[in-house]
Design goal:
Number of strands: 9
Number of helices: 11
CATH class of the largest domain: Mainly Alpha
Distance between the termini: 40 Å
CATH superfamily of the largest domain: Porin chaperone SurA, peptide-binding domain
Largest sheet: 4 strands, antiparallel
Radius of gyration: 27 Å
Order of helices and strands: HEEHHHHHHEEHHEHEEEHE
CATH architecture of the largest domain: Orthogonal Bundle
Structural class: alpha+beta
Helix content: 40-55%
Shape: elongated
Length: 338
């Protein structure tokens, strides 16, 4: 079971490492509790007005709240009348994250510094260059020193959950069967088709003359195929789609996965049949249907492991939530948000 999934499902503000490793505004995977390495000294000599909470004396700053909100909102705009609600939700998550961290901070992890180095290095590979990485850090008001501390917290909390809660979780075959029976609609596959195509592509700058030329080439290839030419060979030599490397093979796809004109033409074919030239916004296609499957329910044996993992995650999350709730009863929590 992946630690990242468990934590991310439990509380979006716990994990931080890959928050900074997404170049888009859709922050993903490891989202984090904002607590810099200087949280209890010079940089955190904060006046009361800059604090939003204290947890057993540990301050949570307005900067941390801003970061948490960026994670929660994922780039979405919030109406002014909902800002206070979002603020409260973010502070509650930061408080819960701090309680988890305080519970996990005493454990010792072998080679922790090396693990931190590895996780940060892995995250940096998601960027095209160091400048993009630095720009993303700046966007969420972080330094590399902050990132290192957040990653440390992430690893401590992850290991704490792995050691404390995961071993106690069990999922029986009966649990899996019950979930499958109650959610059959989630395991139904629509009609699907396996097809290959040859695409003579056009782009948004194509002129009317370009389109005529592309269609004429597609029609010529269609005639060659009708005369017995090898479809895969013509696809490799002429198609502008990346699938040309596989002889035009697109594998199986269900309804709704392709653009309407392509889908309509494909599902109208019988296995072994080939379409006329089909026009889409991508260009001109010649489609050959290989196989077609009707709608079906995925057998339990094919999804048993997936269901078991999902139920384990759910149970671990419930256990962690219960743990935090119990910790809060004996903790000194001050919410200072105005």
């Amino acid at each position: 079971m992946k630690k990242v999934i468990m934590l991310n499902r439990f509380i979006p503000s716990v994990l931080i490492a890959t928050l900074c490793f997404s170049a888009s505004s859709a922050f993903a995977d490891d989202l984090g509790k904002a607590k810099s390495a200087e949280a209890v000294s010079p940089a955190s000599a904060l006046v009361a007005s800059s604090l939003v909470a204290r947890v057993n004396g540990t301050p949570i700053s307005s900067l941390e709240l801003r970061r948490a909100k960026k994670v929660l909102l994922r780039g979405q705009e919030v109406p002014p009348e909902q800002q206070a609600t979002v603020d409260r939700q973010a502070v509650e998550q930061l408080v819960s994250a701090e309680l988890l961290y305080q519970a996990s901070a005493k454990q010792e992890i072998k080679d922790l510094e090396a693990q931190i180095d590895a996780k940060i290095a892995q995250g940096k590979t998601r960027f095209k260059n160091p400048e993009d990485f630095a720009a993303t850090l700046k966007q969420i008001e972080m330094t590399e020193k902050d990132l290192r501390e957040y990653t440390r917290r992430d690893l401590l909390i992850s290991n704490f959950i792995e050691a404390t809660f995961v071993p106690k979780v069990t999922v029986s075959d009966a649990d899996v069967k019950a979930f499958y029976a109650a959610n059959r609609d989630k395991f139904t596959q629509s009609e699907s088709a396996k097809a290959s195509h040859i695409l003579i592509g056009i782009d948004g700058t194509a002129t009317a003359e370009d389109k005529v030329t592309a269609r004429e080439k597609a029609e010529k290839l269609r005639k060659e195929l009708a005369g017995g030419a090898d479809f895969a060979l013509l696809a490799k030599n002429n198609s502008t789609c990346p699938s040309s490397k596989q002889g035009g093979d697109l594998g199986f796809f269900g309804k709704g996965q392709m653009v309407p004109a392509f889908e309509k033409a494909t599902f109208a074919l019988k296995p072994g049949e080939m379409s006329e030239v089909v026009e889409t916004q991508f260009g001109y296609h010649i489609i050959k249907l290989t196989e077609k499957k009707g709608a079906e329910t995925v057998p339990l044996k094919d999804v048993q492991n997936k269901i078991e993992n999902q139920l384990k995650i759910q149970k671990v999350n419930e256990a962690v939530q219960q743990f935090v709730s119990e910790k809060r009863k004996t903790a000194t929590v001050e919410v200072l948000l105005k």
